[in-house]
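Fig. S4 source data, part A: sequence.
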Amino acid sequence: MNFDISHILDQWDYQPGQVIVRKFTGRDGVEKIQLRVDLGLLQMNAHGRPDGKRPFGHESLLEHYQNQLEKYRAENDGSDDGFLLKVEDCSKLQQEAIQYHHRYICLFQLEDYEGVLRDTDRNLEVFDFVKKYAASEDLAWAMQQFRPQLMLMRIRALGTLALKREDFEGAIKIIEEATEDLRQFYREAGRMELAEQSPEIQSLEMWQQDLQEKRPLSEREQLEIALKDAVQAEDYEKAAEVRDALRRIKAD
């Protein structure tokens, strides 16, 4: 077996500052993703757990711990009181979440936005699970502090899908709601000072402003501009026609 992958790297240059990825089907028939990094490449499965492992017979560690929770409830009359995730549990879940993080970054670059939503929703489930059952608030925050990054990627995927449908208003609404959700996250965490410096909030606000400027005008907005122009030009016959058209839109 030849372990040297130099020939692969020589044919696929690393480009600083760019996410260089590709998708292919491996010899095992499984769809895979490769990410070029400065010292080599990362390879992961496109579906299931990225490294292809099945911890404790489950698709992921999250499912394993969820199964442990169900067993605990069954033994305690349906109660989850006393069920705790220890340091090593949270650490393992976080390491697994990083695998999915790498993959949804790659999927976004590949324009597989549905895949991004699948993996970000999965990691949000992990974050919620750890938040509820971590043995301490410090343990929970160790993971929760990365929630804004996750939310940003999820919103970018949702917003881009809306734009592909030419739904500018929908995309802007998604961004507005996400920005408020991020602020609410910092409020609930008692860390509002971080909100003012949040690169995720700043990124969403810049994206929203850009979409507002590029957004196609609605029929009503076009008529309102036409009315203003007609009045300024003292073309009252044209202004009357435009007013009638505006009334019909309002009536609808």
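Fig. S4 source data, part B ends here. The mean pLDDT is 90.
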